[in-house]
Design goal:
Blueprint: E1 4-5, H1 12-16, E2 19-23, H2 27-38, E3 42-47, H3 54-59, E4 63-66, H4 67-73, E5 76-79, H5 86-94, E6 103-106, H6 110-113, E7 124-130, H7 134-142, E8 149-155, H8 161-171, E9 179-181, H9 184-199, H10 201-216, H11 221-230, H12 232-250, H13 253-266, H14 269-284, H15 286-296, H16 300-310, H17 313-323
Parallel strand pairs: 2-3, 2-5, 3-4, 5-6, 6-7, 8-9
Antiparallel strand pairs: 1-9, 7-8
């Protein structure tokens, strides 16, 4: 059975007795820093020289230092820079500042699990990973709630790394909702698989294929957009709130019958085998090696794929239709703020 932690399980003195450095002030960084500060924790924000986030952090009343100084001053360092920037920042600014007994925290296990960052033996290495965008981590906290999170320990030098991680989770409000005990390997591999096969890659490719199929058959692109993309939110919201069975209860019997009889024809054994292949690439480190190499090369393939995707017909049709629905963009500010500092 999974182990879950709540407010009652947190030794709040651990986080309140720590000097915490939040490295990065993007989507997650701003939420962690502000929530911890509101919880009475001694927080400073570490940013790159010339970061555009400095003014925002200072305006919020937070102490701002460069990455090296923030790391030297703290005994708990939470790295919330983008995954691809973490190894360089670690080697340049963080590792030289580490002292025996420090704690090195992450919100995603990629760089530890795949060996891009190799901490010394004299520090704790742990993870606190909210399962939500940063703006919701902050908003739910201010409303008195929290978002579910994961905690994991990769290295327990102090003997209290897990207790400190749970205490940190309390500081950002996660123990209000529940914190699941996991491992760096499980978090990293399931997170990457979810993104690639279902949440991002799977969903977007399914939407694109459905749109293309209808347009190629002669239907209006606008109708195809509404049916294959726009209504996706309505279905996902139902699944989010009530599970798959709850969604099926809420749609028509015709939709439910079509779901259960035709869905398995779309996601057939061939697709499942492809999913297993994707998971194999993740677990073996093949995907990580590919992504690291792509970044070292300057992201030529990534940038070209991004350019082509932005020019797809579904994007052009959608841009025009969304102008008719200004209510859709309400609350979008800050959602893609992932600069990290």
């Amino acid at each position: 059975m999974a182990t879950l932690y709540y407010d009652k399980d947190a030794d709040t003195a651990l986080i309140k007795g720590s000097k915490v450095a939040i490295l990065g002030y993007g989507s997650q960084g701003h939420a962690h820093a502000l929530n911890l500060a509101d919880s009475g924790v001694d927080v400073r924000v570490g940013l790159r020289e010339g970061s555009s986030s400095k003014a925002k952090a200072e305006k919020a009343g937070l102490k701002v230092l460069n990455l090296r100084d923030a790391s030297e001053e703290a005994d708990l360092i939470m790295i919330l820079l983008p995954d691809t920037e973490q190894p360089e920042a670690y080697a340049r600014d963080i590792e030289p500042a580490l002292k025996e007994g420090d704690a090195l925290f992450f919100a995603h296990g990629f760089n530890i699990h795949f060996g891009q960052i190799k901490p010394p033996a004299f520090v704790d290495v742990a993870m606190v990973a909210p399962k939500s965008p940063g703006h919701l981590v902050r908003r739910t906290f201010t409303e008195g709630g929290g978002v579910p999170s994961l905690v994991a320990v990769a290295q327990d030098h102090s003997g209290k790394a897990r207790e400190l991680a749970i205490s940190y989770a309390y500081g950002i409000g996660a123990t209000r909702a529940g914190v699941l005990d996991t491992t760096f390997a499980e978090e990293t591999e399931t997170d990457l698989f979810g993104e690639q096969a279902v949440l991002c890659g799977g969903v977007t490719s399914l939407i694109q294929a459905g749109f293309d199929t209808l347009v190629e058959a002669g239907y209006q692109p606008e109708s195809a957009y509404f049916e294959c993309l726009h209504e996706m939110k309505l279905i996902v919201d139902l699944i989010y709130e009530e599970g798959i069975s709850g969604m099926r209860y809420s749609v028509s019997d015709t939709a439910e019958y079509g779901d259960m009889t035709r869905g398995p024809r779309v996601i057939d054994e061939h697709v499942r085998e492809t999913m297993r292949s994707i998971l194999d690439d993740i677990r073996s480190g093949k995907f990580a090696e590919e992504w690291v190499a792509e970044n070292k090369a300057g992201r030529p393939n990534f940038n070209e794929m991004r350019r082509k995707a932005a020019e797809a017909p579904i994007e052009k049709v959608g841009a025009e239709l969304r102008k008719m629905m200004p209510f859709i963009s309400t609350g979008r500010q800050g959602v893609r703020d992932v600069s990290g500092g």
